[in-house]
Amino acid sequence: MQRMKQKHAISIVVGIILCSLLLLAFVYAEPTDSKNQREQTPTLFIHGYKGGPRSFQTMLQRMEHNNWAEKAMVIHVAPNGDIVFGGRLAKHHNPLIQVIFAEDKASIAQQTIWIEDILYRLKNIYEIDQVNIVGHSMGGLTATNTILQDSMNKEFPHVEKLVVIASPFKGIDKNNYFKVNKGNAAVDLRPHSQALTNMIQRKTYFPPSISVLAIAGVSNNYGTDGLVRLDSAMGIEAIVNEKQLKRKIFYNKRATHSGLHELEAVDQRIATFLWKNTLE
Questions:
Q1: What string of pLDDT tens digits covers the 280 residues of the chain?
Q2: 9 shares its domain with 96
Q3: What superkingdom does the record give (predicted)?
Q4: Which residues of 251-268 are buried (b: 16+ CB within 10 A; e: fewer)?
Q5: How many Å apart are CA 121 and CA 45, to the nearest integer?
Q6: DSSP for 239-259, written as a single string
Q7: Do residues 231 and 159 both lie within one domain?
Q8: How many CB atoms neighbour CB 27 within 10 A?
Q9: Does residue 147 contact residue 139 with C-beta atoms inside 8 Å?
Q10: Phi then psi dihedrals of residue 164, to 5 deg
């Protein structure tokens, strides 16, 4: 009986020692990937109306090839709003995240809801505190609308930098375009649409701390990229302060609406704007 009590006492002592060792190991452990992720600033790439996987694919490949950044994730959004994250963020150099909407003709309001869901998960699951966003065409409108709607929401990462490429803030002033292109997105892309008007009316909600780069192309003698007028592509100037806005216009026959994100000069300008300190 006495021997059993001794064994029991020894077991208790050993248990206490093991627990103490585990506690010390936890306290003095090296920083985890979670801390590293909090220090990262991923960049989300949002395609435009009728866009998809190929919209930013080659740009991201070129950025990786130049060792400017690394593609870390692809996020697929189903028509019903289900979201699938593919890839990992841990320890990437300037991580890139490509967002792909299966329903590529959804309204700005609907796309904003999907981006909000993505940002919420990045903050609360992946522990990301800050992001950059690059949007082409309607993707830039959705990104801007999300910022205007949620800049004060602590459940989302804060946006540090925004790049809008050929985003028609004054709409697409081309009647023939809407004879072919239909749907909720097409409604929002018309000049003076309610969605575009609402963004300008809420301009005071755009944080002055966010640096903005507006990129436009002029590929013809009409001052357009073949679809969007120059003044419309620079229309974000009606929303953000002059001090926080940078502009870059590419005068090139290849600087068409769908060709801008295929120009290496555009890659370079975006990379310098987003990651100047890490490229030097």
A1: 444 445 444 555 444 544 444 333 333 333 334 445 567 899 999 999 999 999 999 999 999 999 999 999 999 999 999 999 999 987 788 999 999 999 999 999 999 999 999 999 999 999 999 999 999 999 999 999 999 999 888 999 999 999 999 999 999 999 899 999 999 999 999 999 999 999 999 999 999 999 999 999 999 999 999 999 999 999 999 999 999 999 999 999 999 999 999 999 999 999 999 998 665 5
A2: no
A3: Bacteria
A4: ebeebbbbbbbebeebbe
A5: 16
A6: TS-GGGEEEEEEE-TT--TTT
A7: yes
A8: 7
A9: no
A10: -115, 125
- Write out the two tokens for 87: 């890839």
Q: What's the token pair of residue 116?
A: 């909000």
* Distance in angstroms (rounded) separating the CA atoms of residues 274 and 134: 10
Nearest-10 crossing angle of helices 108-124, 138-150: 60
Q: Which residue has the tokens 């929303």?
A: 239
Give residue 3's domain range. Answer: 1-30
Residue 278 has what pLDDT? 64
Same domain, 187 and 98: yes
pLDDT of residue 14: 43
For 213, the token pair is 């780069």
In this structure, the strands spanning 70-77 and 83-87 are antiparallel
Looking at the 3D structure of the chain, how many domains does it have? 2
CATH of the domain at 102: 3.40.50.1820
Looking at the DSSP bridge assignments, the partners of residue 161 are 132, 211
Q: Locate tokens 């300037």: which residue?
A: 94
β-bridge mates for residue 246, sequence order = 213
Amino acid present at 90: A
My answer on whether 16 and 90 are in the same domain is: no
Q: Which two tokens stand for residue 256?
A: 């068409």
- B/e letters for 67-90, b = 16+ CB within 10 Å, e = fewer, are ebbebbbbbebeeeeeeebeeebe
